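Case study 2.
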Amino acid sequence: MKFALKNLEPDSLYFLQVQALTQFGHERLKGEKAAIFLNTADHINVSEVNIGSHDGNGKRSVGRVEGLKVQKLYWSRGQLLAKIIWTPRPIMKGVSSPRYTVAWWSGHCHGPGVTTLQPRSQLAATTEVAQYDLYDLSFCCKYRVAVRETNPGGGNVQHEATLMFMTPACSELHASSSSQEKPDCSQFGGCQ
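Prediction:
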């Protein structure tokens, strides 16, 4: 679905937020809200801006940060981790390797024993490889992840992809092998 934003002021910062609403019988259902900041100074002479996987100039990024997904959730050294992966763009001869900024936010958490130090906290890191292990995760929480390719030369061309995922209850976390560390689920309740 596309929306045209008209009469935006040049050199202005806008906060855009969308939420899906639907009627199911007599009940009104609401989806998760999604939001971005839009700086019109970054979109001079651009007639259309695609939200989602885009570059800093408002054009759809082809072959940039694509295929972003959670490869696995696992327990290691006393904490819940999520390995995220994406498909890197091909490196052209004479061009330096891309650098990625990974940011993740905790969303709604629910369940007894679920504690987050800062509700809706944000963490960020930088990597030069197309994967990253997200840390400081809690069971029974929604997370939003954004991976942004940044220009190694320091320019403002950036390519970003986002995803949302929910962490399971401790008891639902499956070990990928018998030697993999497992949490003591008596410390954590189930999701509600």
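Residues 37 and 89 are 25 Å apart (CA to CA).
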